[in-house]
Write a structure and sequence with these properties.
With 43 residues, the protein is mostly helical. Helix content is 74%, strand content 0%.
């Protein structure tokens, strides 16, 4: 994965999944999984 792609991924992840609920760690995994579905298209 190119550095530019990593930067885009990190920015999007921070914007879309800025914090994981400690009481519900699954919410973070679901958010990341959902983002992973779109990152390949973006890159």
């Amino acid at each position: 994965m190119h550095d530019e792609c990593l930067e885009i991924e990190n920015k999007c992840f921070v914007e879309n999944c800025s914090k994981c609920d400690i009481d519900q760690p699954n919410s973070c995994q679901e958010c990341k999984a959902g983002f992973n579905l779109t990152k390949d298209h973006q890159c």
